[in-house]
Amino acid sequence: ANYTTKDLHESLATVHLNREPGKKSAYSNYGFGLLGKLLEVKTGKSYETLVQENVCEPLGLQNTTTQLSAQQKERLTPGHNPKGEMVSNWDFDALAGCGAIRSDTEDLLKFIKANLETVDSKISQSLAETQKFHFKKFSGGVGLGWQIKEPVERLTIYWHNGGTGGYVSFIGFDKNNKVGVVVLSNYGDAWSGDASVDKIGIKLLKIG
After folding, report:
1. Which residues lie below 8 Å from residue 163, measured CB to CB, with a gap of 6+?
2. Are strands 147-152 and 140-142 parallel, antiparallel or unpaired?
3. Structural contact between residues 182 and 145, judged by C-beta atoms closer than 8 angstroms
4. What three-state secondary structure class fits 168?
5. What is the pLDDT of residue 189?
6. pLDDT tens-digit profile of 118-164?
7. Where are the extended beta strands (E) located within the chain?
8. Which of 178, 156, 181, 155 is nearest to 170 (CA)?
9. Is the dihedral of CA 74, 189, 207, 127 positive or negative?
């Protein structure tokens, strides 16, 4: 929450790439946060407005936001650290694109359904673009946001996870069998490297 646009600009002035673009893929929260800020600069709209106009409204997602209403705050399940202690929520300013979105199971299942469907609409075309390989390596690669594993017991799995203070999440789907899974936990540590929620999600996709 204390990392501002000024901090981002100062950081970018000192960044040096350690490899040529396109040669290797590596996940970067900083990169996603920067992308969100660039979209704000390009459109002149806030990240929240962009999320609502381009994703939530077309898909009917009513509980997906970066700014919780008073009613949504009352419904928010508190996060807990590995010791079981309640912890405060993480809030984002300049790097909203890497983790500011809050959602619920109902909305995330709607999002999965939209990714599994083939509909002639602008949002459907955009979702299909995110599922294309943009960097590929042995047994998988990445789309736009999605991690892609193929084959996993004859499944091609599109998945992504997330973690902030006291919360861990997994979302994934298999297009061949039209199966999707959402796993949300209010117990965890984003920095611990605990992949148990991911394992639950992948296991459920295999069962499905």
Report:
1. 169, 188, 189, 190, 191
2. antiparallel
3. no
4. strand
5. 78
6. 888 999 999 999 999 999 887 789 999 999 998 777 888 999 999 99
7. 79-80, 86-87, 135-137, 140-142, 147-152, 155-164, 167-174, 179-185
8. 181
9. positive
Buried b vs exposed e over 8-21: b needs ≥16 C-beta within 10 Å?
Answer: beeeeeeeeeeeee
Copy the structure tokens of residue 183. 């796993």
pLDDT tens column, 20-50: 887 888 889 999 999 999 999 999 999 999 9
Tokens of 113: 């359904």
CA–CA separation, 97 and 30 (whole Å) = 9
Proportion of the chain in helix, strand, coil states, percent, rounded to 5: 40, 20, 40
Write b or e for each residue in 180-192: b if 16 or more Cβ atoms lie within 10 A of its Cβ, otherwise e.
Answer: bbbbbbeebbbee
Rounded CA gap, 68 and 92, in Å?
Answer: 13
Instruction: Retrieve residue 165's tokens.
Output: 């203070």
Amino acid at 176: N
